[in-house]
Structure formats: structure tokens, C-alpha cells
Amino acid sequence: MTTKELTIRAEHIRESVIEMLLEAGSGHSAGPLGMADIFAVLYFDVLNIKPENPKWAERDRLVLSNGHICPVLYAAMAHRGFFEKEQLMTLRKLHSHLQGHPHNLELAGIENSSGPLGQGLSQAIGMALTAKMDNKKWHTFAMLSDGEHDEGQTWEAIMFAGSRALSNLTVVVDRNNIQIDGTTDHVMNLEPFIMKYMAFNWNVIEIDGNNIEEIVSAFKSAKAIINKPTVIIAKTIPGKGVKFIENDYEWHGKVPNEEQAQKALREIRTMSGKIKSLHE
Amino acid sequence: MKHLVTLAKGPFENQECREGFGDGLVDAARENNDVVALTADLKESTKVAEFADTFPDRFIEVGVAEQNLAGIAAGMALSGKVPFMTSFAVFSPGRNWDQIRVSICYSKANVKIIGCHAGLSVGPDGATHQALEDIGSLRSLPNLTIIVPCDYDQTRKATVAIAKHNGPVYMRFGRGKTPNITNSRSDFEIGKAIRLTSGEDVTIIANGPMVAKALEVAKKLEGSYDISVINMHTVKPIDKKAILEAAKDTGAIITVEDHQRIGGLGSAVAEVLSENSPTPLIRLGVNDSFGESGEPEELYDKYGLSEEAIIQAVKDISKIKG
Which residues in chain B have their CB less than 8 angstroms from residue A129's CB? Predict the structure, then answer.
């Protein structure tokens, strides 16, 4: 898929995220919007998956560790054809398959259950180990937030994957610098973040997580590394695509009202083709 | 007292449950290539060493990291493996309850959590290493089966059985040797209690190392009290039918476990009785306190789990029953 096409997919995902959150009335806005470009690239370019056969044994595995950004996962899956887009409007409602935090048994194509932070990477490692054990070619991707690096389990897992040289594992860290109580610098300073991963024997790639070309290229080079796991530290703008949400940690855990949602959708649509980079 | 199952003639040979686990794991692994084992720096103590030597490609050492242990096991289960994750019960589930709740139970990941060195049976290591709360902390988790085998053969059989069972299981056993009261021909079925002796006066429902003690008490009291002994190796799902039959048959029940009185076997039995057939009940277990260093038998004596304590409970409940 071309950069232009992927950019359009990301916009569709953003629109769905806003519509879902407005309908749901609760949830998280900043993370899903910031990660829309990466999910568009994963679901439309990188992942070897069959939406019509979601349990296909040879599929790539995607583990979402920071489950609270699941609107972007659900939207990407729906747009990729895992289920009808109408279902997106059931997010967080009774009897919905789209739980407030993802549940593997609710929707085929969701690999794990998550919400409590720090649990995803270990599970992704378990999947990557299984692939190695059985000489399978599928690749495991784990999506982590920067804030969940406060959890000890995340570092237990980082140490394990590094020491086992799990090259069939790629982690994406949403480095958006916000968490519930404020910026990550303020709540719990993670720096020197890259150095930490390097010290744990990981291959580190740092990118602009809202730049489609950089995202595509990072996944390609991650797959080419054969002696280490790779972490893509994706510097994203939380709330990307909607100016009044961007970079405001107060939007981590709240949703737009009707007026704000309409404004957001207008913005996403009028910016069509122009939402891309952040640090230029 | 009538023996309902063929029991080896005493004095019983003593063996470790964990040896039974180690041997059962190898049995299960020979039957099913998907069986894998993971440990958190306790390969020898949790008896996965033989598995590791026999199937080195199916063994994973995660280091002293019990949360990661549970997560990796979950991930392997979610991709088709049957992982056995081993540690001491104080560490797992002691340090990874949330991982067990979300990554394993909520996802119905087919993980077998093996908690070794449970209860006062740990002895001299002291309170920090005596898991007396593990069952209580796990029993409220949906989708989880909980097994407490009593001796070598039962542990070996339970290991093979849980490998075949599709769903999360927690199995815990103590450190020390327990009398071999079952043998390789004894029945074992998850969720099905085993009535070892039949009597009319009092039923003792026990599991783990307390089963042998209950049998010994039944023997000692022969002539004065007619005691029924039930080996309740599965705490969840609890065998309601066996409990209610016992209530009907004897009208007085004592539970005995190497665990806190709160939350374990005694609580599970109390729940069944109080909702279905209120019956005089005495729950023996550690009474809301931590343990301490000492030899296991000294600790059982001090914390109310000796044969004498069980005998006293038989006398007390007989008075209540009238």
C-alpha cells in the first residue's frame, strides 16, 4: 500500500475513534488518536493476517499491552474487515464484543486480554518463544505505552527477551510522554530511555510515530535484524489530528462531547492528507 | 470405620508430592508434545529438572521473575502450548496474582500453575516462605481449577490429569514427605472427592498432608468414634455432592488443611453446607496468623493441625452434634 493510501486509512481510523468515543461516553482519546498511523500501517501493510480466517495458525500475532487504547485496535480491525464497522458503535456497552479493555475471547483476532498495565510484553514473548520452538515463521508484535514502563514486569520481560535474543519479536512503544497524572518526565522519568533498551540487548529504532514513511521503514528494518529483538520507540503526538486534544495529558482518559466530536471530525476531514509528521 | 478404597498397609512409606509432580510432568510430556515447563529459578526445588534434562527444548528458565513467568506461560498457552509454570507458592501465586487473573484466567489460557513448598510443611524457612493464603487468594478467580493432592501417586496422577484438562489450573503441595496412602492404581478424577473410610459419627474432610493425619486419627479413635475420611483433592470446583452426602451420613464435619482457616477448603465446605444443609462444622487450619520457623510437625502441633488437635475436634463436634 502506498503512503498516501495508508494515510487515508489512518484518517478513517481516527474518524472511527472519535465516533466510537462519542457514542461510548467514556474511554481514552489521546492514545488511540496518536497511534492511528501505526495501527494503519500494521493492519494494512505489515501484519500477515487473514481477516476472513482470524485464527489462521500462521498469522502474525499482535499483542496490545496498554489495553486502554483499544478503540484504535477495534477501528483498525473493523476497517481491515475483521467485523462490521457498525459494531464499533457498541464499544463499552452491555453485550458488546468491544469491551472497554480488550478480551481475547470476545473477538476473533484479538490475541490477549489487557488493561492492567505491564502484562502484554510477557505474553508476546510467550508467543515468540512458541514460534521459535515450533520453527514457525510468524512474527509477534507487542504494542506498549511509555507509561507502562513504570511497571516492574515490563522490565522483567525486556530483560528476558534481550537475553534470549528473540529476533521474531518487535515492540512498539508509544512514546507520547503522557500518563494519567501528567507527563512521563514529571511522573516517572524514563530517560535515558533508548540507552536502557540498548543496555538490555535490544535493537532500538527511534521514529516519528505519526510519519507513515518512517513507520513503514522501521518495521522493515526490524524484521531484518536476526540476533536481537527490536523496539521501535515511536514518538507520537497524543491526540494527533485534533488540535484541542493534542499534547494535553488531561485528554488521556476522557472523551469528546458532541460539539467537540463534530469539531474533531471536521478537523480530521479537512486535514485529509496533511496529518503526518510531528517533529519537522 | 470401613475402608472404602484399598489403602496400602501401614506404616506407609513416605515420599514427596513434588517428586510425584516431577515424574507426572515427564509422563504428561511423553503423551503430549505441546507440554512445556517454565520455572523462576527453582528448577531443582520444584522438580522440573528431570523434565528439563529429558526435553531441553521444551523447558524455559525465566529467572527470578514470577510476573514474567505467568505472562510468558499465558502467551505460550494462547499459541497452543500446555505450559506448566513452577515456583514456590509464596512467589507464585504470591507475587503474580494479577497476571494469573488477567493474562491467564480471564483469557482462559491453558496454563498449569504449580505452587510448591506450600503451607507450614516448609518448616524452618519460616513465615515468609510458608504459603498459607494461596488458595484463599485464588479461589474467587473465575475459570480456575484448584487441586491439592495428598501424596506422591496422587500428585503424579493429578499432574497427568491437569495436562489433559483444558483450562487454567492451580495445583499446590507441601515440601515434606507424606505417607503414600494412594498407589498407582488409585482413582483420580478432577472435582471428584475420594471417600477413604466410611463411618457414622463424624466426617473429616482433608486435603494435602492432612489426609494422612485424618486417616491416622480415624484409626486411633476406632472403637470410640466411627469416622468417615474424605480426601478433597479438588478445592475448586468443590465436590458438593460428596459434602452433602457426608452431612447426611454423619451430621458433623471437620475440615483440615495446611492453610489459613479463612478462604481455603474449610471455607469452601462451609459455603456448601450453610447454603444447602446447615451442619455442625469445625474448620481446622492456621487461625489468622503467620507461621514461623520450626520443624513441620512442631509447627502443626503449635498451630492446631496435629493429630491431637483433630482428635479434640472430633470430641468437640460430637458434643455439639449431641
Answer: 60, 72, 75-76
